[in-house]
């Protein structure tokens, strides 16, 4: 499969490496035409404000929103979670606004408060997964059709809503491919099967 990574700013290369390590093709997405080459897209960590501005400047915001609402699988990590959220605490506007969650920016603190922990996330892997948090957000509120995949210290840090996956942490900064495998095999694959069944 062809998995795109939004390549405007942030941790693009790390995601591409994990995609290719699982035998799929990673494609940098920079212009609208790139959406026609991919089966799914990842919104990497970085600066959500910067990425949001670049989405507007490049005209990609509406195109990306339409693709996601049309069923394209998407995974937002850290800043990507903020981009997907319908509501952002203390901010009067959102970005893509496609996932029924309310998020808090820098919820665990500043850069010096970055940390790692390990958790078993049953829907993803039976083994402990290393979770890397860097100026991470978390979910304050989630809609009834949002599946909570993981909490840390009582805070929601991973969630899924249909074709949309969001994580506060950075699986791409570890050697563990469990989350990338989960995204591709569970969310992307099931979405492609569902689309084929329509025809």
TrEMBL record:
Annotated EC = 4.3.3.6, 3.5.1.2
Q: Where does this protein hold L-glutamine?
A: 46-48, 105, 134-135
Among the GO biological process terms of this entry, one is:
L-glutamine catabolic process
Q: Where is the active site?
A: 78, 170, 172
UniProt keyword list:
Glutamine amidotransferase, Hydrolase, Lyase, Pyridoxal phosphate
An example Gene Ontology molecular-function term:
pyridoxal 5'-phosphate synthase (glutamine hydrolysing) activity
HAMAP family referenced in this protein's UniProt entry, alphabetically: PdxT
In terms of PANTHER family, this protein maps to: PYRIDOXAL 5'-PHOSPHATE SYNTHASE SUBUNIT SNO, PYRIDOXAL 5'-PHOSPHATE SYNTHASE SUBUNIT SNO1-RELATED
Report quaternary structure and partners: In the presence of PdxS, forms a dodecamer of heterodimers. Only shows activity in the heterodimer.
Please report which protein family the annotation says this sequence is part of.
Belongs to the glutaminase PdxT/SNO family.
Q: What is the designated name of this protein?
A: Pyridoxal 5'-phosphate synthase subunit PdxT
Gene symbol of the encoding locus: pdxT
